[in-house]
Amino acid sequence: MQQNYVMTWKYMHEIIKISLIAFIFTEMTHEGMIFHSYKKILLKLPEWIAFPLGLCYMCFVGQACLWYYLIFHFRDYNLIDHLFFVSAGIMLSVIYKIFFNYADR
Questions:
Q1: Cα separation values, 102 from 27, 54, 66, 98, Å
Q2: CB-based contacts of 30, cutoff 8 Å, min separation 6
């Protein structure tokens, strides 16, 4: 039981870090920000590839969490944990967006 509890907090810590970094990256693609030129490149691509590369914050965070889990938890892979990792990252990105929208008022 103690091992699962520790693993859950380890995952949550990783999810918070990865989702926040990915979300902030997408926020920094707006006009006048440092990565706006990257967004201009994305706008020239078809949506099916541009969204997961950063045009959609939820898609980008989902991709970041998906690949992070696969790369760093490959040896102890668990499908349910993987789905949780990605879903929690996307859910946190929505919360971040709500905070950002509230702060812009």
A1: 14, 22, 28, 6
A2: 36, 39
Cα distance between residue 44 and residue 46, in whole Å: 7
Q: What is the mean pLDDT of residues 66-80?
A: 93
CA-based angle 27:54:26, to the nearest 5?
10
Count up the domains in the chain and report the number.
1
Q: What residue numbers bound the domain in which 85 lies?
A: 2-103
| Predicted model pTM | 0.88
Could you give the CA distance from residue 81 to residue 18 in angstroms, rounded to a whole number?
A: 15
What is the DSSP track for 31-75?
TTSTTHHHHHHHHTS-HHHHIIIIISHHHHHHHHHHHHHHHHSST
Spatial separation of the C-alpha atoms in residues 80 and 97, rounded to whole Å: 26
